[in-house]
């Protein structure tokens, strides 16, 4: 049987080199036949010492046939849970319920313990002046720390150039929430004394010692019950890479393998996971190692990476020929010409393409051919981009002499973001419309602060942002007789906007920060039991 003639543009020649990694040719029905079957007399046959690499081209009218067996070795996805994806406990309905999955009571108690211990040791070591702010230090409680976190989260939604402006009393920029929740001095006391782990060494120049300040905190939220933040690997410089597995591989590959091994430690039989990476982490050696662990890799690729063949580094792509594909076993390298050339690696997808519609400037649409591996990558990588977008929307970052504070506040924000993601998953499963990210954070702030109030009492007549929570908290409220003033307008039945509508009383609620005037009986009961109490 005569060998059919191959057009020169369908393949290219790649000479043997010193590279350790070597791609095989694509094995399809239409592929070129083995060099061993070649006739010596054929003028278009490449010598045995050379390898052939197929260049799969696409055009507006025809798409090259894909290998039917490209994805025949796909592992069935298995995990230790029956349901793939976020598993939300049934009791989680409110924002604080989701947040507590990450910032648990145990974590709060640990931070309270370490903060109080650190403050005690720090104050005992100092000679304090009579006017020192540390003379009136009292230990932090769990409720106070929760309120502190709520203030931090609220600060992220209301950015100002300096923290002191949150406590301003001027009409422009006045935000009563912060003054009513904390005195500025007390808030700064907690901010300065905040501590996450016991100092085990006095050598502050030792990087390993400095890492311990925040390591336990990261390890804790890393092991959250939902597994949503499953693995973190903070980078502290070269000391972070010393303990990574596989020192024979590049650091970028070792980081991904280290994170995946954390998952395998919890679930040794797991297989079929699919990791999506950006161009910094993606590499052929990493894809090979993950395949040995029954895990797939898809990611954009720097063409200057080791073992990338020349035909992918500089593909001969044109307007009508937009795709170049190169496969070795289960690993696919693909270059696609869009507005610029995009190079991607995948150990899962095939070189299949699909036609999509794209809108152009004039409002018209054009049809373009796009590889499915690019579509799948954009769809799955979007989750990380969405998380980054949420993190940048409401971000609390302040200059601090203590570097680890940034990591702590970042961990707080990530916990809030993942809480919101879980909340959206839960509400959509129940066919309910979720609240916006902003409203979720605001609601979480309200629930974290609860009934805690350590701020200065508001002036008479000035409304407090916490008025509703105070008067409807179901606790005992004390009614007292006015002594400083003769009488007050009753907040329930008095209305000065209408003629003869003013109603005064000699009693007020001493428990509420607002100190509202109230008649004994119905007005007092109405104010403390009804949301809309005004008559």
Automatic annotation (TrEMBL):
<dbReference type="InterPro" id="IPR032718">
    <property type="entry name" value="PGBD4_Znf_C"/>
</dbReference>
<protein>
    <submittedName>
        <fullName>DDE_Tnp_1_7 domain-containing protein</fullName>
    </submittedName>
</protein>
<dbReference type="InterPro" id="IPR029526">
    <property type="entry name" value="PGBD"/>
</dbReference>
<feature type="domain" description="PiggyBac transposable element-derived protein">
    <location>
        <begin position="223"/>
        <end position="420"/>
    </location>
</feature>
<dbReference type="Pfam" id="PF13843">
    <property type="entry name" value="DDE_Tnp_1_7"/>
</dbReference>
<feature type="domain" description="PiggyBac transposable element-derived protein 4 C-terminal zinc-finger">
    <location>
        <begin position="476"/>
        <end position="528"/>
    </location>
</feature>
<dbReference type="Pfam" id="PF13842">
    <property type="entry name" value="zf-Tnp_2"/>
</dbReference>
<feature type="domain" description="PiggyBac transposable element-derived protein">
    <location>
        <begin position="95"/>
        <end position="221"/>
    </location>
</feature>
